[in-house]
Amino acid sequence: MLTIGEKNLKSRLLLGTGKYPDFDMQKKAVDVSETDVLTFSVRRMNIFEPSHPNFLEKLDAKKYHLLPNTAGAKTAEEAIRTARLAKASGLCDMIKVEAIGCDKTLLPDPVETLKATEELLKEGFTVLPYTSDDLVLARKLEELGAHAIMPGASPIGSGQGILNQFQLSLIIEQANVPVIVDAGIGSPKDAAIAMELGASGVLLNTAVSAADDPVKMAEAMKYAIKAGRLGYEAGRIAKKRYATASSPMEGISV
Length: 254
Ligand SMILES: CC(=O)[C@@H](O)[C@H](O)COP(=O)(O)O
Prior knowledge:
EC number: 2.8.1.10
Bound molecules: 1-deoxy-D-xylulose-5-phosphate
Keywords: Cytoplasm, Schiff base, Thiamine biosynthesis, Transferase
Family: Belongs to the ThiG family.
Oligomer: single chain
Protein name: Thiazole synthase
Largest sheet: 5 strands, parallel
Pathway: Cofactor biosynthesis; thiamine diphosphate biosynthesis
């Protein structure tokens, strides 16, 4: 069980809702993933225009914890405004803070992320900031009261997987709130590695929505995250420089 703020989640997979070939495919992939949390960009939702297309329309939104995100924001002010809009529309009091500092890499702006997180926490939101894999920044976000830390594995939508396992593992080791690896996951292997490192969960979108078969990939991600978590809990063996026989001969008289 994963707990973020007051939400208890059965699944450790948090899924994005954008970029699917169509809404039927999106629904099938979401169903098979068994996720509890769906994230979506508030700016793309037409939340106050029910007649406009809404990319959650095929999903039974009541079955999920909705995690609106502030994608498109570059400043704390924009992120805060977007979060308030999501709350005012009655969608949810959880928010994924995304304040982008670089158009090419979509890497987060640390200063604006901190500012937005601080303000939204004061306003009573459950705040999950998307951050770089920087240990000190992660710690500062936690000190502010962030309910989870979401370090990127690699740039959003790049599918490059985890670029710096060392940095991620430092964040995981020191955090006292859930660490959700967010962005850049390319394959089930990447998701399993994140979980084996001890992450509390994985948030991903493109790896599923842009896969040749999004439904199959959603299922693969579900199993990879479960397998990674089990492996982490089971405790892997230590790496050794030289071989140790799997069937030791000591004590056996031939
Ligand atoms: C949907 C969402 O929140 C993305 O911004 C998120 O960071 C996922 O990134 P990937 O598409 O790389 O999985």
